[in-house]
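Run folding on both entries below.
>entry_1
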Amino acid sequence: MDKLGVSIIIPCYNELDNIDRLYFELKETVKRLDCPAELIFVDDGSTDGTREKLQGLAATDKNTKLILLSRNYGQTTALAAGLDFSKGELIITMDGDLQNDPQDIGLLLEEIKKGTDVVSGWRKQRKDKFFTRILPSNIANFLISFLTGVKLHDYGCALKVYKKEFLANLSIYGEMHRFLPAYCVWQGARVSEIVVHHRPRIYGKSKYGLGRIFKVLLDLFVVKFFLSYLTKPIYIFGGAAVLAFLFGLVVNIVVIIRKVSFAGQWLSPLFFIGFSFWGLSVVCMLLGLLSEILVRLYFESRQTPSYRISKKVNL
């Protein structure tokens, strides 16, 4: 592999107590790399002093880039901001909470040398609570792998490396960051997975909870639609319409038969109420997909980014 520039993007949100150690470990890792590298910290609207800490580090180290977002936009948008200002041909992403081990970056790059386009970390021995973090994550990983066809053990691991060519034309928004490997495969990328270290959180608290499961399921439905039906939406919209029509036809036939057979006794109103809610759920889901298409077109056609930067340092 030729010596490719590396951009390490680290979104941070209220990680004040972790910044110093993370910065030190990253600088030690960068020294050992055999290619030029840049650190890009993206502060996602922190309120605990993280912004000031990062500004102090960037002021004394010109190789450390800093983007301060005007408010908290979320991890996907923070990554998008880092991508927009990155110069490396290889993009490495990781969390700012010290649970990812910077020393594993070398392992990711060694895997890239084997001809892979995307390398995803696998936290095989996670240091998190089982019921609130590990179990929901395992369920999500199974569903994502099953529906996208891209088999990974750990979609949620932030430690990944991408060849930038597969991210350059991709507008990311919402919560797309966890599905990036699947999107890259959609564009022809080869994806592999390696085991990485996972450390217990010492300072701060996790930004994810059980409510994340619901978001993942909805996002997964959208991802499946974009991967399989974006160029042929009539298959899913028309299929839903045909299914709803057939279901309604069956209901009408059953009602007519019952009316004839049971001297005018109609089916329970609860049955029709249930059918109405079923139809309403289908309509809402299809409207949601249409909205996602419009949002995607909006973000891909606009000339300005979906975030506002309050300050840039060394960029």
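>entry_2
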Amino acid sequence: MPLVIYKMDDQLIVAKDACPHRGVPLSLGKNDGQGVVCRYHGLRFGSEGKCNRIPAHPQHKISDRFHLRTYASVEKYGLIWCSLTAAQNAEPTIPRMPFWDDAEYQQLVCPKTNIQRFAGRQIEGFMM
């Protein structure tokens, strides 16, 4: 499933890469400092994936159905980790890397690539 990732202050938001209004990929939009803005109709999604602006109806109360489906995520070891099954406020279970901050060990972060496979297999492939 394609995901969109953005930050609001210190909060990392990972959500399905589709605007709930018309399904346009939010990754085609931009972050204006108050959230990620959908390129099609300008809906903006801020903290916790909540829609905070609908340009066509600025005076209307925003329905919960316009909020994004977000996923539990954490930034660690130079990567962004998320869980598609854990509750949003939970921290995803990630591998423990006890020597990551040890200067005696080399830290490797996989280059950006999309091979459409499980993250564990991607890491395994880059470690060999």
